[in-house]
Batch of 2 targets.
Target 1
Amino acid sequence: MSMFKIFNVAGSAVSAQSQRLNVVASNLANADTVAGPDRAAYKARQVVFTTTPMGEVGTAGVTVSQVTEDASPGRRVHDPKHPQADAEGYVTYSNVNTVEEMVNMISASRSYQNNIEVMNTAKSLLMKTLQMGQGS
Amino acid sequence: MLNRLTDSLNFQAEALSLRSERQRLIASNIANADTPGYVARDFDFATALRQASGQGSVGDSAVHGPKLTMAASNGGHLNRNGQPVGGRDQPDMNYALASQTNLDSNTVDMDRERANFADNTVRYEATLRFINAQVRTLNTAITGQ
């Protein structure tokens, strides 16, 4: 029954999108951090989606193949009194762009909802298929 | 005798399995809406059903050109759709072009896919109802009341 594969496909997409939401949450939480665990400023992270075949032709799920770090330099603010200030009196904040992250979040949540709806539709179709021939 | 009874059901069963295949394909497209480089796929239902039920029409080759199949001399060879030769014939895939240009060269158009998904859902249910109605008809004929 090929329709059962829809749950694998949509399920993989849902878990990939939720990982994307997780990364967005980390980025937004660290939007104003000065230093990470390694004493360097936090770098924004992005997930990379890859198509993964699931059995039959045309059945393509999604996986997160890697999580990349944004290499662009962090925001520098002149604040000599700050304990993390460098020799020139500049403090380096994380390079998270909050506007980009909010857009990313909306996109991820919409994709998540889309896939949930796909699963609901497939479920109701399968329920009706199970009742085939029993109608009075 | 029983063949006659089930022949009409077979056609609907073929349609139902193609509908579920298309449903799976559209679900894959929706799942990959954010994957860079993914190309949306779909197949022409009418042509696929004609192929599956063995009613290849004459007009078909006139429109789409002669149908070419690749020769397979070894059991491990694959056909045009990447499936092993000799297995159940898969419908021919069509690849979508991007409706709007985008940077990640993903060609999934969510509006189109959602519309196709809803359309396919309704038609799947219609096929189910046809089957149910035929079963009911057969039951009535058998009980003879």
Note: Chain A is about 45% helix and 20% strand.
Target 2
Amino acid sequence: MARKSDVAAQRARACKALMTQVHAITAKEGINPSTLHAIKLKLEALARRKELFPAADFALPVAQGRNYPLLVEEGDGLGLYLNVALPGKEAAPHDHGIWCATAAVSGREKHEFYRRTDDGRTPGSAAVTKVGEVLVQPGHGMVMADHDIHATTVVGDKPMVALSLYGYALVRFPSVAWYHPQFKSVRTTQSRRHAQNVGA
Amino acid sequence: MAKTYQVTIRNSGRTIACAANQTILQAAIGAGIDYPYACATGNCATCISKLEDGKVSLLPHGDACLTKAQIASGLTLSCRARPRSDVTVNWLARSGS
């Protein structure tokens, strides 16, 4: 049985190798549907290596929903995370302004994709319509382009453990726009990280 | 049919009905109250509020948005909180749309 430190070292090497591969892809061809698909395949391959992401290393029993940075670059570099979320954990339709790919280590998460249909002229108001859906589970990942809108829900009775790769590190997200079909509204947060200091 | 509780939102000075299967935020927006929110799904903490009285149950949320220590100190997320008694809440932030 591998020691915890050995697993961590192997995980770090594997993550670094992924980042190198992704940089090679984007340096050559930039970000387009073809390269995003290639990135998703690389991420799926890493997620298949379940032995690198043992539950004991990521506080699975207590996490409601949490991002663990694996290798996060400084500035406007890529951000690679292990996400853990309990069944029922959800995110309303949102646009985080930058492409991302997700691949499951275990568990299942429904991703619903939306398109904005109003003219955007009324501040705080928006209309979106659902245009597609993907079930992310081991072997079946998801990729989306800059400014695509998606909603997520962890389904089934097991936690979702997934790798997510973003075009920016989470701390560098310019903003996140949240759409609420039931309220016919849109609200913007400047960064996901701002929440950590609210009411603390 | 779900049981209904009375929710007092101190900032607005109003008391509204909220079904047990409804979040406080849903009931507030439905009642025309300008409650601050952004993600409305427990990911941003814009709707973080003081639970001044009563009991709620919480839907899954991001750990960083509402910690166990914050819950212990009487804070809640209105977008994740469903009433389990009559409650009084007071939002801490102001909406920025």
Note: Helices of chain B lie at 24-30, 68-72.
